[in-house]
Amino acid sequence: MLEGLAAGFADMGTPMNLLLLFVGTGLGILVGALPGLSSPMAIIVLLPITFTMETLPAFAIMIGIYVGTKLGGSFSAILLRTPGTPASACTALDGYPMARRGEAGKALGYATMGSTAGGLMGWVAAVTAVPFIASIALDSAPPDIALIGIAGLVMVSAFARGSMVKGFAGVFIGLLVASAGLDLQDAVMRYTFDLSIMESGIPFAAVLVGIFGFAVVFSDIAMTVRGSELLTKDVKLSLPNIGDLFRRWRAWIIGSLYGIGIGAIPGVGADGSTWLSYATVKNQSKDPPPEAFGTGVPEGILTPESSNNATTGGALVPMLTLGIPGDGSTAIMLGAMVMHGLTPGVSLMRDDPHIVYGLLAALLIATVFMFVIAWMAIGSFVKVLQRERSFLFPFILVFATIGAFASGNALFPVFVAIIFGVVGFWLEARGFPVVTIVLGAVLGPIIEYNVRLGLALSGGDWTTFVGTWPRIVLVTVIALLLANEIRAAFRRKSEADRLHDQKEAEVGRLGPGD
Amino acid sequence: MTRKPLTKWTAAVVTGAALALSSVAAQAFPDETIRLIVPYKPGGGTDTIARAFAAAMEKVAGQSVVVENIPGSAGINGMLALAKSEPDGHTIAINGSSDVSGAVAFRDNPPIGFDDFACAGGVFHTPAWILSHKDNGYEDLGDFMEAAKANPGKLNFGITGTMSATDFVASTIRGANGLDYNIINFGGGGPLKKAILANQVQAGAIISPVLLADVAAGELNVLAAAGDLSGISHEPVRATKHMGDWNEDARIDVAVIRGIFMPSGVSEEVRAKMEEMVAATVTGEEFTNFAVNWGYAPYTQTGADYCARLPQEVEDLTAVLEKYMKPPSN
């Protein structure tokens, strides 16, 4: 393992790769800082450029962006109270009050240190877990993968922000999208309407471009109209000293642990982990007392920021070992792997270990770069925040269009991307978390394929899905998750009914005409 | 869109002029970038061969050779793009013989036919082979067949796709020898590879030289060949018996031969020039090194022979289909 990792650092350590990582990370911080622009969008927009590159340099850029956006989001959360990314919304709770007290530099300092600590913790977790899980995964049989996929889908729907119904709706749209085309096992045409262009299904890369490229621009146009006031223009980063950081170890350790664990679960992503860890740290805190949270305490920044950066390491684990993405960005990176001729899945570590270790090395280097860039150049990022950013939209649209075209060297994916851009914008505006569509589309085929293959190998015997202890555990987890959600839904319903009755009673008391 | 008729008209004039001066044109050909269509996503076997071929051909042709991936519909989209391209020799495609013949023969209303294409020759020959994990203890196909006889309905034989070349291998062995084993479709070479390595199927048919490294390392046994293995780089498996050696009824030649296709409207001069360049590329040092490194000695076939192979494959496969496989449902 250590030789592999050393080779990974050697691969990533070439001047060109380091440069790309540096540029990617800087770009990521910038993209993250600009409200509305996100890491999946930035990666999607850069995809056509990375097509022409070798695999590792292409992923150097993507990993850089992925890591950078996690910190960048906190800048606008602290200075504008408009989180640059959903994952930094939590940071605004304490970051903005602290900045209003005139301690903007300190708030940014805590965010930077929190992100760096979380990123390092996430990296340690990924480096430890990936080789171990990869070696087990190679012996996994189709039923195992199918059950992991199903558990992932249930979690995607359950933990998606907003309602579970909307989460499930998104997942089902994703499943529908992915089921179109030639079925690989029986060669049945599904939803192809006799069009040969539909035989390969709806081009997934184009769906990603639509949802993360076009839709983001549409909703951003709607958002820029509102505009928001920058708190202060002159910001000097003031990093907390190490002693200060160690005194507040609970904040960033708990934040990181949540980030790693939740990052590894498909679909929940960084925003879920920030809120959960924030709540935990807040409730258990003695100094400062829980009431102080929300008034600008350092713990309130360290926790969510360490958490969202730790998800990067967590999300890489299922991506590199099982071919299952933890969030939108890793879903795109998996797509990019296919375009670079790799086969993501359980054999990636066996077939292309240098890619796996290269990516792990990139994660650490990008985290270090993130710290350095924030330290040296935070002022420039703050300056950008005050500028009008609508001039970026045409570029994003052009790049997204090129990306869609390049995914199949044809016009059809461009049309698909535009349609999904409109649909994605419409759904997002109505509170459907669109990332569930993407994860449904990614996990659906994995589940279907492995369920059918598992049944074929067992001669149609369904008990194969509870044939080993790990499978029984997985089935139990799935059942418990579903039961819990259904129970919660009933409770919500009865609560809603009670409120409704109460309201009616009040209306009745007041009587008509009052 | 409105520009299309004009483009077509211009093209017609240009083609006419080119035809009138065909000998001059043939001498000048190739005088611009050559576009090599790969009808699959990057990274597969055909794509890997194509990229090595393109790099080697640039030196022979004196022009850039650009690989363009047009994936989809099991290779149909890319071949359709070739059929519709300007037949001036600057657009060519690489594809496997059975990938084209299968697509034309075994689907309803295929959007392409053999007469849409001219051939500039075969460039790579890879037969199918049957592999098994060493832990199963099968030294050759005979051992596997014995086990299958002893355990009817129990053994699993992996293939890469329904009605694919590997399906013909598995179905022929089963049908010709009256065996009863399950043919499991993995829907691709990658997943089948993993299943053979993890010993989740007792045998698997896959296009060689996939898994050659594991064969050489002694992890996997080659049970039988489904075609001519004599060109493979790893010497010990060259002598592998053919599946027809156990039963003459199972003597079919299942191999993917990658060849260079051109649109059918191409002039004979240009086609012949392309054929010449293809042969020079394949036998050149650069491509030979790639080929041997990848697993096989270089292989050439003339355009005429290559084109003739396609309907022959359909005939052979139809015979197998009628005898040993259920007719396609629909």
* Overall SS class of chain A: mainly alpha
- Number of helical segments with 4 or more residues of chain A: 19
Order of helices and strands of chain A: HHHHHHHEEHHHHHHHHHHHH
Shape of chain A: globular
Number of DSSP-assigned strands of chain A = 2
Summing up helix and strand content along with how strands pair, one would put the structural category of chain B as alpha/beta
Question: Termini distance of chain A?
Answer: 77 Å
Share in β-strands of chain A:
under 5%
Low-confidence stretches of chain A: 508-514
Mean pLDDT across every amino acid position of chain A: 86
- Shape designation of chain B: globular
- Please tell me how large the radius of gyration of chain A is: 23 Å
| Mean of residue pLDDT values of chain B | 86
Write a concise keyword list for the protein shown above.
heterodimer, A: 514 residues, mainly alpha, two-stranded antiparallel ribbon, 19 helices, 74% helix, 1% strand, globular, B: 330 residues, alpha/beta, nine-stranded mixed beta sheet, 9 strands
Description:
The complex is a heterodimer of chains A (514) and B (330). Chain A has 514 residues and is mainly alpha-helical. Chain A has helices spanning 2-12, 15-33, 39-51, 55-79, 91-137, 142-159, 164-179, 204-224, 242-247, 249-263, 269-284, 299-321, 328-339, 348-351, 353-386, 392-408, 412-429, 435-457, 469-510; strands spanning 181-182, 189-190. In chain A, β1 (181-182) and β2 (189-190) form a beta hairpin. Chain B is built from twelve helices and nine strands. In chain B, strands 1, 2, 3, 4, 5, 6, 7, 8 and 9 form a nine-stranded mixed beta sheet that branches. The model of chain B has no long low-confidence stretch (mean pLDDT 86). Classes of the chains: A mainly alpha (514), B alpha/beta (330). Chains A and B meet through α18 of A and α4, β6 and α8 of B.
